[in-house]
Fold this sequence. Notes:
There is one protein chain. By secondary structure, this protein is α+β, with helices and mostly antiparallel strands. It is built from 6 helices and 23 strands. The chain has an 8-stranded antiparallel beta sheet with strand order 12-8-9-10-23-22-21-16. β4 and β5 form a beta hairpin. α1 packs antiparallel against α2.
Amino acid sequence: MNKINRQAILGAITAAAAAVPGRTPKDILKGVLISGSHNEIEIVGTDQEIGLRVKITTEEKLTPFEVVVNPGKLQAILRESTDEFVSIDVDRDVMKVVLSNGRFKIMTEDAREFPPVPVFDEEKFWSIPGTVLSSMIKRTEFACDSESTRYALGGALFEVENGKLTVAATDSRRLAVATAAIENQNEAKMPEKKTVVPAKALRLVKSLAESSTTVNIAFHDNDLMVSFGNSTLYTRLVEGRFPRYRDVIPRKQPIHVPIAVGPLFRAVRQAQIVTDEEHRGVVFKFGDSLMKLASIATIGSSDVEVPIEYDGEAMEITLDPVYIADVLKVLPQEAVVDLNMTDAETAIVFTVDDSYTYVVMPLANDR
């Protein structure tokens, strides 16, 4: 029997299972591939668009095995135990799991039928701190349009230029752009084709990067390879042309209002209470050191005030509060965001330092 740390293998199965499709006509894809040899176990999940490999090490040398098993059943067995170690053995088409208080058998499938998943064996790649990449995706992924018939809007654009990684996402009504420094390893080159990463892969990269010290990324024409240390992710890229997003960012906006994220977020949530599907807009009014948020719907109305540093001419713009709340909830509540505006018809631009830009198109004010 192979003695394995229970928490380690449970975490690895849970991570790899995130790539398993919810629905598929191919039964083999409903399982994860688990292989063990020497002092290492690797667990692989895939939907054939995205593949995830997770490795763990063991204290004892393993009896070699390779099998496909239902991850949900195995997770449930391991999760309900408090043992530090679990014993696992494979006998033909059965996986045996032995705990201190029970024994389990799970039917398996032939590992030879499991589709191949690429490994990260790149010599040339780019490196970025895991927490930085995770934050960049967190600040952009919500702007993807997963329901769009324009496939490129269903993912985020990754660009590398002059030592900086840019991640951009848009649904044509708003745009989120995050930038950060990235290191080139061994003279890596960017492909000529645009790199648009699908939303599902974005979520996995964000989750895995958050707990990784360094993330290595290899860009190819049709796919992306990402290494997180003990995990690697493969994903096909989204087909289609991504919009020329830089062209939609307004330049030289004359009105600038700095405001703390926390107070602005609370005010937006309050104003959003009295909105509905037919009257979803909130009017943002600026002037006399105050920002007033006004909303009117069939159920009532609201007026919320927030002190601001602004003594310019009075100005107002109607915005969808959902779009504003989306960005404010992914920013540190103590941070200061700059609101940059021109008039009621021009997009409003939220900026944080020089590393984050969020553009929102205004709604027509039909009051």
